[in-house]
Automatic annotation (TrEMBL):
<dbReference type="InterPro" id="IPR038719">
    <property type="entry name" value="Phycobilisome_asu/bsu_sf"/>
</dbReference>
<dbReference type="Pfam" id="PF00502">
    <property type="entry name" value="Phycobilisome"/>
</dbReference>
<dbReference type="InterPro" id="IPR012128">
    <property type="entry name" value="Phycobilisome_asu/bsu"/>
</dbReference>
<protein>
    <recommendedName>
        <fullName>Phycobilisome protein</fullName>
    </recommendedName>
</protein>
<dbReference type="InterPro" id="IPR009050">
    <property type="entry name" value="Globin-like_sf"/>
</dbReference>
<comment type="similarity">
    <text>Belongs to the phycobiliprotein family.</text>
</comment>
<dbReference type="GO" id="GO:0030089">
    <property type="term" value="C:phycobilisome"/>
</dbReference>
<keyword id="KW-0089">Bile pigment</keyword>
<dbReference type="GO" id="GO:0015979">
    <property type="term" value="P:photosynthesis"/>
</dbReference>
<keyword id="KW-0157">Chromophore</keyword>
Length: 161
């Protein structure tokens, strides 16, 4: 559940909700149909989206070992799924706690940052084609959070120097 809504419900245990609290709940409820639609689109088109990204990635980086490309693609698939769930829940902490805590370490260990940089660019391009502008606006912050964390991790900064 959306953490702010959960907090509102917890704090209002023995009272009626305040107008501003109802506003937060109303805003989330009103955005839910669009969030559900974006989630369904991602779920239903995931294979198509990721296959196109995989094909482009392989063409862009022909000298990279296949196992590295596959590892990065699997991570991107998880990034997409966790971002979609975070968007549906409207909860950035969900992505942080469930994905980022281990993904940045995995990427650093396997040294796939260069692949991931290209992959994120291709994924963003493909998502822009597959989703509506409104859906991109809902999903974008979650994907951006993951991409920023991965591309600005301390290991990457050290590698760039």
């Amino acid at each position: 559940m959306h953490p702010q809504i959960e907090t509102i419900f917890d704090e209002a245990e023995h009272r009626y909700l305040k107008p501003e609290e109802l506003g937060v709940i109303n805003q989330y409820v009103n955005s839910l149909p669009e969030r559900l639609d974006a989630y369904r689109t991602l779920r239903d088109r995931e294979l198509e989206i990721m296959q196109q990204v995989a094909d482009q990635l392989e063409a862009t980086l022909p000298n990279e070992p296949v196992e590295n490309l596959e590892r990065s693609l699997k991570n991107a698939l998880l990034l997409l799924r966790y971002s979609a769930m975070g968007m549906l829940l409207n909860d950035e902490a969900f992505v942080q706690s469930r994905l980022l805590s281990w993904l940045t370490t995995t990427i650093s260990i396997h040294n796939t940052q260069a692949i991931d940089t290209s992959l994120f660019r291709l994924l963003n391009q493909r998502l822009t084609q597959a989703l509506t502008a409104k859906q991109i606006n809902l999903l974008g912050p979650y994907i951006a959070k993951v991409q920023t964390a991965i591309l600005q991790s301390p290991t990457l900064a050290a590698a760039g120097n």
